[in-house]
Amino acid sequence: MNELLLGLADDELVIGWRDSEWTGIAPLLEEDVAFSSIAQNEIGHARAVYERLTDDADALAFDRPLDEYRCAPLVELRLLDWGRTIARRWLYEVADEIRITALMEDPDVGGLAAKINREEAYHRMHAEMWRERLRDEPRFRDAVTELWPYALGVVLPAQREELAARVGLDEVEAVERGLHTDDFAPLWDEMTMVRRSAPVGSQW
Amino acid sequence: MAAVEIPQDEQAFLAYVQAGGQVETADWMPDDYRAKLVKFIEMHGNSELMGVLPEREWILRAPTLQRKLALTAKVQDEVGHAQLIYRVVEDLGKPRERCLADLVDGKAKFHNVFHYPTKTWGDVGVIAWLVDAAAIISQKALLKCSYAPYARIMKKICWEESFHILHGRDVILAMVTGTPAQFELVQEALNRWWGPLMQFHGNPIPKEEDPMYLWRIKSQGNEEARQQFLEGYVPQIWELGLTVPDTKLRRRDDGVWEYSEPDWDELMHVVTGHGPKTDERLAFRRRFLDQEQWVRDAVLVA
Amino acid sequence: MIYEVFRRERKGQAFEHAGSVVAPDTEFAEAWAREQYGRRGESVALWLVPRDAIHDVEDWADEFDLKYRRVDGYSIKARLKEARERAAARAG
After folding, report:
1. Which of A84, B42, C25, C48 would bridge A79 by S-S if both were Cys, CB 3.0 to 4.6 A apart?
2. Per-state percent for chain B, helix, strand, coil, to nearest 5
3. Domain CATH number, residue A23
4. pLDDT tens track for A120-177
5. What is the distance between the alpha carbons of residues B141 and C34, in angstroms, rounded to a whole number?
C-alpha cells in the first residue's frame, strides 16, 4: 500500500509541477488561472498523501535522491505545447479516477481518497470540456495516441482494461513505472535546487 | 444610451470628476480622458502579466510545499488581475488581443520592476513583501478612480493582494531567522531591488501638473505614494537588522523621508523597453503567444 | 461572447454584478467564472448572463414636480412647531 501511495503522491507532485510550467504562458489568461488551481490542488493532494507516510512531508517531497521517486513516466514528460498538455491532462484524470476510486474502498485511506476524489471532479470537468473542444484537432488526437502507452502505466495492470474502455482505445504495451524518463532529471534538478542550497533541515 | 447627468463639454466634465463624480462605460467622456485612461489601465494589465514571469521560475524551485502553494496562488492572482483589467480596457474599446500584441511587440509599457532579473530565493521574499507593498499603495489610491468600472475591480484586486505581502514577509522572516547565508540572500536581494523600488512610484511631478491626477484617474501624487511606502516599510526593514543601501535615507522630524535622488534616467530607459530582462521576457511571451494561436482560434469561436 | 457575472457572497445577500468573462459558450464561461469569482471561496453562487440578454434602462423623464411621492417633498418642521405650541397653550 505504501508503495502505491508514494506513487500517487509523486504523480500528483510532478504533474502539479508540470501544470505550473504554464504559469504566464497559457494560451488564454483564463486557462493560466485554471491551471494554477489544478496545480495547487495536485500539490495539496501530494502533501496530504505524504503526510500519511511521514511526519516531514517536505523532506519526502524534496530530499530523496532522484531514483527513489515513484512517479509514472506520463507525468514526467515535458510537454510545453497545448495539444499534448491537454491530452495528458485528460488521460491522467481518467486514469487517476480509476485509481482513486479503488483506493476509496480501503478502510485505512478511503477517507483521504474520497476527499481527493471530490476535488478532482473539477479537474475532470475541465479536462472533458477541453477534450470536447479539441476532439477533432489533429494536434490533440495525435498526442492522445502518443501518450496512451504512458497513461496505461499510471494504473495497475488489473485496472488497464477499464482504462482502455473509458478512453476508447485498445490496450497496448504500457510504459511502466520504475525507469525514469530523460525529462525527469532536469525537473528534479530545478525542483530541488533552492532546497539543496541550504543544509538539510533549514527553514524556509 | 447616453447618461443624462454628465455634460458633453470638457470643462464641465473636469469639474464633475474633480468634485468626485463617477464615470461609467457608456457615458460621454473627453477623448483625452478616454485615451489616458486606456493607456494607464492597459499598462497596469501589462504589469500584472509581466510580473508573472520573474516569479514563475521560483514556483518551480520553491523549497517547501507550503511556499510552492503560496507562490502559485499569489501569481495566480496576478494573472487573474490581468484578466479583470484587460476586460475593462476591452469595454473601453481596445481588444485584449491587441493589448497583448502591442505588449510583445514592445509597443506598450509596463512597470519598471518587472524588467529586472530575479536571482535568488531572496528576491522572492523581497518582491512579495516590498514590490507588492509599493504596488498596493498605488492600488489603494486607485479605489477612488473617477472611472467606476476600474475602481470596482480595484476593490477585488486589493482584497486579493492582502495575503501577498504577508506571504512575502513570512518568507523574509524565515530567512532572516535562518542561517547567516540565508540572511545574506535577503540583504543582497534588497540591495539590488532598492533602486527600482524607489523609482517605482514615478518622478515627483506635483499632482497639480499630473494629467492623471487632474482627471482623477489617479487620486494620489507620486511623491505622496513614495512617502507612504517609506513610512510604512523602512522601519519594518530596519527592525530586522537589514540595511537599506542609501546613506541619505532618514526620517525628518516633520515626518518627511529624505533619500538619495533616484535615477530617473534609468527609470525612463527601462520603461521604454530597455531593461535588463525586457527583451528576453517579451520574446518568451511572444513565442508561446504565437505557438498557441491555434488554441485561441479553436476556442474563441462559439 | 461576453457573459456578465453576478455573484452572491453569502446566503441572505442579493446577487451583485461582479464583472464579465469572454467565452465561447456557457461551459467555458462557467469554468472561467468559477476561477475568477470563486477560487478563494468568496462566492456561494454565480449567475452568468450573456450581455446581449441584458435589457438596460437608463433614461428617465421627470419633468413636472412630483415631490409629493418622496420623503424630501415634505417639510413638517414649521407646522409641527405650531401644533406643539397650540397644544401647550391648551394645556396651560
Report:
1. A84
2. 70, 0, 30
3. 1.20.1260.10
4. 999 999 999 999 999 999 999 999 999 999 999 999 999 999 999 999 999 999 999 9
5. 28
Q: Which residue range(s) make up the domain with A61? A: 2-183
Q: Do B58 and A194 touch (CB under 8 A)?
A: yes
Gap between the Cα atoms of B238 and B176, Å rounded? 12
- In angstroms, the CA B5 to CA A200 distance is 67
Paired residues of C17 in beta bridges: C6
Q: Of A30, A64, A23, which Cα lies nearest the Cα of A192? A: A64
Query: Which of the residues in chain C have pLDDT under 70?
Result: 65, 67
User: Could you count the other beta carbons within 10 Å of the beta carbon of residue B260?
Assistant: 13
CB–CB contact A17 B60 (8 Å): yes
Each residue's pLDDT tens digit, B212-247: 999 999 999 999 999 999 999 999 999 999 999 999
Output the pTM of the full model. Answer: 0.92
Q: Where are the beta strands (DSSP E) in chain B?
A: 250-251, 257-258
Chain A hits for C32, CB-CB cut-off 8 Å, are: 30, 33-34
Architecture of the domain made up of C2-53: Roll (3.10)
Note which residues in 252-281 of chain B have CB less than 8 A from chain A: none
A 18-77 near B (Cβ less than 8 A)? 20-21, 23-30, 32-33, 36-37, 39-40, 43-44, 46-47, 50, 57-58, 61-62
Q: With respect to residue A191, please indicate whether it lies within any of the assigned structural domains.
A: no
Q: Distance (Å, rounded) from C-alpha C92 to C-alpha C89?
A: 5
ipTM of the complex, rounded to two decimals: 0.95
Which phi and psi (to 5°) does residue C4 adopt? Answer: -80, 140
Mean pLDDT for back-to-back runs of 10 residues, chain B (302 residues) = 61 93 94 95 96 94 97 96 97 96 94 94 96 95 96 94 92 96 97 97 92 94 96 97 97 97 94 92 95 93 60
Asked whether the beta carbons of B60 and A20 are under 8 A apart, the reply is yes
DSSP labels, C19-86? EEEE-SSHHHHHHHHHHHHHTTS--SEEEEEEGGG----------S--GGGSGGG---HHHHHHHHHH
Which one of A20, A41, A126 makes the best mutation probe of the B interface by having the most chain B beta carbons within 10 Å? A20
Question: Which residue in A49, A44, A25, A140 sits closest to A91, CA to CA?
Answer: A140
Domain chopping of chain C, boundaries? 2-53
Tally the domains of chain B: 1
Residue A18 touches chain C, beta carbons under 8 Å: no
Are A24 and B291 an interchain contact pair (Cβ–Cβ within 8 Å)?
Answer: no
**β partners of residue C19:** C5
Integer Cα distance of B150 and B155 in angstroms: 9
Q: Is residue B218 part of a domain?
A: yes
